[in-house]
Design a protein that fits this description.
The protein has 285 residues and is of the alpha/beta class. The chain is 39% helix and 21% strand. It has nine helices and ten strands. Strands 3-4-5-6-7-8-9-10 form an eight-stranded mixed barrel, surrounded by four helices. Strand 9, helix 8 and strand 10 form a beta-alpha-beta unit. Helix 7 packs across helix 8. The longest helix is centred in the middle third of the chain and has 20 residues. It is globular, with a radius of gyration of 19 Å.
Amino acid sequence: MTFPALQEYLSHLHATPQADTSLWLDENGQAHGRYFNSTLTSAFQPIRALDLAGASNQIVGVQGFMRSYTKSGSGLSIWKLLDTVATDDQSIELDRLCRLLHAVNFYRQPELVDIDLYLSVHARLLAAVDSNHGMSFRRVLDVLGLPHRKIVLQMPLIQADQASLLNYVADNYSRNGFRLAVNAANAQHGLELLQQVQADVIKVDVREITDEDAALKLLQVTADRNVRVVFKRVETIAVRDKLIRLGAQAQQTITAQGYLWDQPKASFAQLNDAEHAAITAADIA
């Protein structure tokens, strides 16, 4: 699938940074942006549906990460670099630039357009987001002729006293047609979030799984509500094996994301290469 308005926009971007625009393209067609004299670009980490038989795990989504740009592709997280110096207004500006870059770099790759694109909402933006924030992003997508149905806006991990603020922001994005994901510290927290906010996806941190009963219950409850669970930060074979066992108990496909399989990469071809390398290394370890 191609997007004529996006292709027209890309055709007018320069091949080197220019004073009159914040975006430019490199020789591979990758879009980069400028902010605070830093060069930024997108990296994507797959979200995979685990094959319980041990075969290749299908990519069902990717999460966009903003990185400082280097030719080696090993840039740093730009939020960590700028978080202490940017004001709320500057953070909103950076957030909008990040979303534009991710959307451009995602939809320019035809291999990715049929899967979900997860875009994070930074924690500093919860209190700063106004009633038009979701509409602003929707308008950008409309101008570029890009669909929003595959975009999942990912809310940050919140404290208990931030539930009303999270609901306000979530409602803003939902009314503009975006799907929503919320982050949970663990499976029990995910169960609590289901009572607090209307979400399409619950993302659960599983660097360790200490409560398998809660994880199994979360899978069962979300299945009844048609909510997807993504287990993120999967870094060890032991955690992977626990997830596969939970999937068998719940009779559900497990969706997971983590360095066990993938480092964030710029292109679909790099993501496929990374899958084979990561799985081989993990199985040998």
